[in-house]
Amino acid sequence: MSLIPSFFGNSQSNVFDPFPLDVWDTFEGFPFSSAAANFAGARVDWKETPEAHVFKADLPGLKKEEVKVEVEDGRILQISGERSREQEEKNEKWHRVERSSGKFLRRFRLPENAKLDQVKAALENGVLTVTVPKEEVKKPEVKAIDISG
Description:
Its main location: cytoplasm. It holds the Pfam family HSP20. This protein is mostly beta strands. It contains 1 helix and 7 strands. A hairpin with a 2-residue loop joins strand 6 (120-124) and strand 7 (127-133).
């Protein structure tokens, strides 16, 4: 029971949290929860080295079985997965749920020089690293032409 009555009809408000997320949930009424919306845009860095395109995604707490890395037709790299919400037990009372949960999906169009058959992925310490090797850029062969006359 709350120490301070709720003015918004929320029976779970408390003195330490006068504006709980469930009162100010900007995604209320949408087909996804705000927690899922927070995770939906998993943060990804993409850098290009002379040898490869390297993608790094922060996915703390996920196991490799919960993440899928795919290359689709048209050179599309797709990273997806889902973080499940912890289930509340009968004798437990949650005061705040801030860790994001839900499905996520990120897609990137790879450049022409990507070797799609050699993509590698590794998940270590909550960071997914996807390495897409690049084809060697062949310098155009220059042929000298003799000038007659």
